[in-house]
């Protein structure tokens, strides 16, 4: 399986997108409280690999996630693939030297935690940033794929939440790091940052326009494309009445706009397979402009989730079958 169940213009699941500003403020408040109390930053003084339980989850993961990205690996003794993935992650956490922490969770000893994260099986890998949980990937993955996801996670922590971790050697006390010379932001970076800020502030119209401005100058900017897809999706559902939308879709299976609206709600609500399945069925039942509308909306939702997500791969195959 491919390791990106994480769309990276920000930390996104969509709920985290809408709460990013609040989460960043909480993270900054937590850091300030620790500084006032004279407490060390958890990421600097603690091991890079921990075994987390339901009882220690708040202190070992949630609180520490305000200082450093925490990667959670759900594993089981009977699942050899999950143990192999843990070995890979343990090696990588040493290489990344404090830029993220690894929390291993035995699913049989932590079934409630496993269920709360909504994992479908093991191995399953999630992350927590500033108290915000998000899926990373499920199943086996190659080193380069895992590194790509980790790099994206760390970048999001820095750019969206102000979380930079504490680079140290595993098992060593942190040394004072030299302050790097700041690099002036490019105009493209400033424009992208403005788009992210608008999205965090709930200014969806402003975010849509800002992402379009970035793409006008840089059409291949993947981060801007993803941000635009997310902002447009949130804009479509922000005033929707979920009950009315779902009733209209159930009562009128042939009503393409009703099915599009319901699929948007499905995705925002985390029912990714339902959203994709609904639109694939709509493509299958329709023709002409209606079919094109359903197909294009499905492709937009693929962009929101990420092309490498296994659910997107499966839905692309299903779409191809009904089209050809």
Automatic annotation (TrEMBL):
Family matches, as CDD domains: ybbN
Record Pfam families: Thioredoxin, TPR_19, TPR_20
Name of the molecule in the record: Co-chaperone YbbN
Membership in a protein family: Belongs to the thioredoxin family.
InterPro entries noted in UniProt: Thioredoxin-like_sf, Thioredoxin_domain, TPR-like_helical_dom_sf
Classification via PANTHER family: GEO12009P1 (PTHR45663)
UniProt keyword Electron transport, yes or no: no
Residue intervals of the Thioredoxin domain: 35-155
Keyword annotations from UniProtKB, A to Z: Redox-active center
Organism: Streptomyces fildesensis
